[in-house]
Design a protein that fits this description.
disordered C terminus, 6 strands, mainly beta, single chain
């Protein structure tokens, strides 16, 4: 079975937690809160819900996430989505887990070319132009 790939943008709910597995592999866990905002009947934006994505990054990406991201940062993640159904205190719950393939910070409107370049985090660790499973990211998108 192949897991679905998801791309989502949200804010870190807390600082990433970095640890190592028994064999020394770095792993970072963090939660991304994806808010659903809609216009109400008065034409005002309001938050109508939040989807919480528990994320796991591995190896060099884990180390970069832990070094460069903090609570409140806006990020865009891409990864493999897993659904976890469980029961707690007699109530059924669903949690979503993302095995992270790519992490990026969005570029904000009104920023200068200099600030946009400075905002590149190097969180992508792929030799493929826009993401993937190997080596350091060296190319930038053609904007």
């Amino acid at each position: 079975m192949t897991l679905p790939t998801i791309t989502a943008t949200g804010n870190l709910a807390a600082d990433p937690e970095l640890r190592s597995t028994a064999n020394g592999t770095a792993v970072a866990t963090f939660t991304v809160a994806c808010n659903d905002n809609r216009k109400n009947d008065r034409g005002e934006w309001e938050q109508v819900g939040t989807t919480w994505l528990r994320c796991t990054a591995w190896q060099q990406r884990a180390e970069l996430v832990a070094e460069q991201l903090t609570k409140g940062d806006t990020v865009t993640i891409t990864g493999r989505l897993k659904q976890d159904d469980y029961e707690k205190d007699g109530a059924k719950h669903t949690a979503y887990q993302v095995d992270v393939i790519e992490v990026a910070r969005p570029i904000r409107p009104g920023g200068s070319r200099r600030s946009a370049a400075a905002g590149r985090t190097g969180l992508s660790t792929s030799s493929e132009p826009w993401g993937g499973p190997s080596a350091p990211h060296t190319q930038q998108p053609p904007f």
